[in-house]
Design a protein that fits this description.
Structural class: alpha/beta
Strand order of the largest sheet: 5-6-4-3-7-8-9
Distance between the termini: 18 Å
Helix content: 25-40%
Number of helices: 6
Strand content: 25-35%
Order of helices and strands: HEEHHEHEEEEHEHE
Oligomer: single chain
Radius of gyration: 16 Å
Amino acid sequence: MAEKLDLIVRCIRTFNDFPSKGIPFKDIFPILKNPKALTAVIDLFEEYARNTHPHVDLIVGLDARGFLFGPLLAQRLGIGFTPIRKKGKLPGPTISVSYTLEYATAEAEMQEDAVTAGQKVLIIDDLLATGGTLQAAYELVKQQQAEVLACLVVIELKDLNGADKLKPTTVFSLVKY
């Protein structure tokens, strides 16, 4: 496990002052470029899911980088994947929830039939910062009367306390800054 985590950490780049001054942006795209690093991410998520939540029914991924890891994990576990997107990006009947970003509000949505009542769900994204987006995803899944088992992220920015917004739901993060 330590070797896999080390590889993942080596692939994460920091771009200071992006997208605005004072923000140290964590770039996960080199992980996607490195097949061994991407495999390491999915291996560790799979190990966590199988050991901690063996009865998971569905992976829910957040727009857009949750779409990169979620389907791969779902395929490994032999279960389905469904997306949560920004408002207006999904066809058919949808449900939505508003959430607060650092300087604005946004809306997330999912298709009405994406999650079934009683399903056991893992929510996945690339990064947990302030927790607004993951909290919105949690609310959407709960609206469908499904059970959120945990939230999985590649990176957690601990100083921003995003995991506090998700309590008592467990946040499983591979790398913490």
